[in-house]
Amino acid sequence: MLQQFNEKNRDLIVNISGQGMHRDEAGISPFDSAVQGGDAVWEGLRLYNGRIFKLHEHLDRLERSATALSFPEIPTREEIIDEIKRTLAANKMCDGVHIRLTLTRGVKITSGMDPRLNQSGPTLIILAEHKVPVYSKDGLKLITATVRRPPPDVLDARIHHANLLNSILAKIEANNARADDALMLDTRGFIAETNATHVFIVRKGDLATSRVVACPEGITRATVIEICAAEKIRCVETDLSPVDVYGADEMFCTGTMGELASIVRLDNRLIGDGKIGPMTKRLSDLYARRTATEGVDVVD
């Protein structure tokens, strides 16, 4: 599924380390760590009616990831929120917006891998776009990628880092197979997530989702688990294999950019009856109720 260009984003103002500039003029140094080695962490945020849903949970994860990578300096939460507000105000945005928040280790004094070459503090990039949830509401078609997610002793996926080549390789496989996305397994053969989102299956009214072993701690995933607890819907975190998916009644994925989206086919096999199921619809509605009423105000 290829995202189309939104004409509303033609003249975006991008915020780089507190400086706003037109998208066509924005740039970062070739000495920045994000350019040199993907040495950065990131978050995707979504703006609903002037509020960012689960903002503090996202900033918690950003801080944990930057700390895991030993960033010597991390902007304060207040500084980041102030820059988000400035960026939204500069673009006159209040709803239907996706924000890509990136924090890099910063600019190096010379090319090289050594983090000690970073001596000028981090780079904060805020990119806000007019962007509705990206996934089709008609149901997604997935393939199982041959590329595997690494275990924590190779690269811990709980670090929400900006080096996404592992996922990009899986997405290339999906594109070549004319699928919407790729389901990724860990090195044990259990499901990690898709190349971009967490997954849930439904069987006989109960939910199951993969353990956080070879995938990050998802904010939307956690929200679905919260909703299940509130609604007394049984939901377990466990090791899942493709066989579990093939026998599921429903399957859906979760993520900030796409919210909840039904998966109706995997490896040319129908999931359930191949239609969006009642549990997926129910949880999507309950999620929408939360985003309509909860969040941190960032638009005056």
Describe this structure in words.
This protein is of the alpha+beta class. It folds into two domains: 7-130, Aminotransferase class 4, branched-chain amino acid transferase, N-terminal domain (D-amino Acid Aminotransferase, Chain A, domain 1), CATH 3.30.470; 140-293, Alpha-Beta Barrel (D-amino Acid Aminotransferase, Chain A, domain 2). 27% of the residues lie in helices and 27% in strands. It contains eight helices and 16 strands. The chain has helices at 33-37, 55-68, 77-90, 152-155, 165-176, 219-230, 242-246, 278-293; strands at 13-16, 19-22, 40-48, 51-52, 97-104, 123-130, 140-144, 181-185, 191-194, 198-203, 206-210, 235-238, 250-255, 259-266, 269-270, 296-297. The strands form two sheets. Strands 7, 8, 9, 10, 11, 12, 13, 14 and 15 form a nine-stranded mixed beta sheet that branches. A hairpin with a 2-residue loop joins β3 (40-48) and β4 (51-52). The longest helix is centred in the last third of the chain and has 16 residues, at 278-293. The chain is globular. The two termini are 35 Å apart. The relative contact order is 0.16. The mean pLDDT is 97.
Keywords:
single chain, 300 residues, alpha+beta, D-amino Acid Aminotransferase, Chain A, domain 1, D-amino Acid Aminotransferase, Chain A, domain 2, 2 domains, 9-stranded mixed β-sheet, 7-stranded antiparallel β-sheet, 8 helices, 16 strands, 27% helix, 27% strand, globular
